[in-house]
Automatic annotation (TrEMBL):
Pfam families given in the database record: Glyoxalase_6
CDD domains cross-referenced by the UniProt entry: VOC
UniProt lineage: Bacteria, Bacillati, Actinomycetota, Actinomycetes, Micrococcales
Gene3D superfamilies: 2,3-Dihydroxybiphenyl 1,2-Dioxygenase, domain 1
Name under which the protein is recorded: VOC domain-containing protein
Amino acid sequence: MTEEKRPAARGTVVSIVVNTTDPQSLSGFWADLLELAVESSYEGEFVWLSPVTPGGPKLAFQRVEHPSEGPRRLHLDLHSEDPEALLSRALELGASESARHSIGDFGWVVLQDPDGNEFCIAQG
């Protein structure tokens, strides 16, 4: 009897979820920064933003009582042809800059969104 091969289990990223005490406010920051629309919302408990590219993952914001403290295990890297303009926009929307790094001629800025979640802006 030949052993039937089972298809490999494969996951697909459909959402990148951020835990927050205020999903409405934090999703508004990211919607404004990335020019995304609210795709759906569930009574202040969960907000989904439309994917950046068709078929891409959604950004989701989930209400929790106590978001994780300490180093973040997940963050977003944003690339831009004009990283300084995106940096200025993020700061205007309430982000704060925490560090600047470079390796050779590649540089990036580490920021925190209004809820303290890290993200980076780099050259495109």
